[in-house]
Write a structure and sequence with these properties.
Blueprint lengths: L3 E10 L2 E11 L4 E5 L6 H9 L6 E6 L2 E2 L10 E4 L11 H11 L4 H14 L15 H13 L5 E5 L7 H18 L2 E6 L2 H7 L2 E6 L2 E6 L1 H6 L4 H6 L4 E8 L2 E4 L2 E4 L7 E7 L5 E3 L4 E10 L3 E8 L2 E8 L11 E5 L6 E2 L6
Parallel strand pairs: 3-8, 3-9, 6-7, 7-8
Antiparallel strand pairs: 1-2, 1-4, 4-5, 9-10, 11-12, 11-14, 12-13, 14-20, 15-19, 16-17, 16-19, 17-18
Helix pairs in contact: 2-3, 2-4, 3-4
């Protein structure tokens, strides 16, 4: 049996459904992200696991034990919040030791475990510093050390990196994943950042309106989205009108060989912007309406017979298409996905 199991977990507030029959099985040592827009139910799910919100229905078991029958303080869970929630009047070491003091851990053992936790997050030299004299990234490490020092069975992370700037957030993503793997702890992350979820997770739960639209590995969810919502939320994608015919898919009047035999009739196809190439001719003709430079890549908006198409072109040092320039868009037939009929 899986280590942490959510079985048809639900939460209602009057007539409003925050979480709707969510089922999820998490293996020991796995890193799983709850990903979705604001209001999709991901934080409510985390708070139900933590014990801070009572479910309206369903069950949560941890190592085959009914977690709902155990008060929050006895569930053995480590939690890192978005705000870090550090005590400003305490030093780093005192903040990290707080949970052990509440558990009445003997002083000698407490000091040893605090030292071990600070070494794990690279803060040994800052043990006597106060949080107000630390950077956001350092405070985040303190919060992580405080959660890990109690040796939790599951680490719960509620958007812990959202207050950091973009460069530091990327660095902390790598550090967080490395620490999680070194410790071997089971981790549940709540985030609205698709890149963060894909970089950190073994699996992603893409949530929408309280439901799990797809539970899959990052590459599977990205390459084979189960719904139009997943395709559009997890990275950029183009949803283009198409006509399916025996052996081919026609987009904007241009035919591509069908990888499999599709049903005939009108449809929509999903194509990731980075899979689209530029050619002088031979593809879907268009005009560049906008060219935006992003350092490592150019983001192009191209007007075609199939509508506006977003194209990501890697910056290889060569000249980029100019606004108003005519181009031809090409892609492999295998890069098209027939979009599920679940969206507008």
């Amino acid at each position: 049996m899986s280590f942490l199991v959510l079985d048809r977990l639900s939460k209602r507030y009057g007539d409003s459904v925050a979480v709707d029959q969510l089922s999820l099985a998490v293996e020991k040592g796995e890193f799983v992200s709850l990903l979705g827009p604001s209001g999709c139910g991901k934080t409510t799910t985390l708070l139900m696991i933590a014990g801070f919100v009572e479910p309206s229905g369903g069950a949560i078991t941890l190592a085959s034990t009914d977690l709902l029958a155990i008060p929050p303080r006895r569930r053995g869970l480590g939690i890192v919040f978005q705000s870090y929630a550090l005590f400003p009047h305490m030093t780093v070491a005192e903040n990290v030791a707080f949970g052990l003091e509440m558990q009445a851990v003997p002083r000698a053992e407490r000091e040893a475990r605090v030292k071990e936790a600070l070494a794990l997050v690279g803060l040994t030299a800052l043990a006597e510093r106060h949080p107000r004299k630390m950077s956001g990234g350092q405070q985040q490490r303190v919060a992580l050390a405080r959660a890990l020092v109690i040796r939790p069975r599951v680490l719960l992370l509620d958007e812990p990196l959202s207050n950091l700037d973009a460069k530091l957030r990327e660095e902390m993503q790598l550090e967080l994943r490395q620490i999680q793997q070194n410790v071997g702890i089971t981790a549940i992350l709540v985030t609205h950042d698709q890149t963060e979820a894909m970089a950190l997770s073994d699996r992603i739960v893409v949530m929408n309106k309280g439901k799990a639209e797809q539970i899959a590995t990052p590459d599977e969810a990205y390459e084979r989205p189960a719904s139009t919502f997943v395709a559009s939320f997890l990275g950029k994608t183009n949803l283009l009108p198409a006509e399916l015919a025996p052996g081919e898919i026609r987009v904007g009047g241009v035919a591509w060989r069908a990888p499999t035999e599709p049903p005939c009739g009108p449809a929509r196809v999903a194509i990731r912007p980075e899979r689209i190439g530029l050619a002088a001719d031979g593809g879907l003709a268009g005009v560049v309406r906008r060219a935006s430079f992003h350092g490592a890549q150019w983001l192009l908006l191209v007007e075609t017979a199939a509508g506006l198409v977003t194209v990501v072109r890697q910056n290889d040092g060569g000249p980029a298409p100019r606004e108003g320039e005519q181009v031809a868009l090409t892609w492999r037939a295998d890069d098209m996905r027939i979009a599920p009929g679940d969206g507008p």
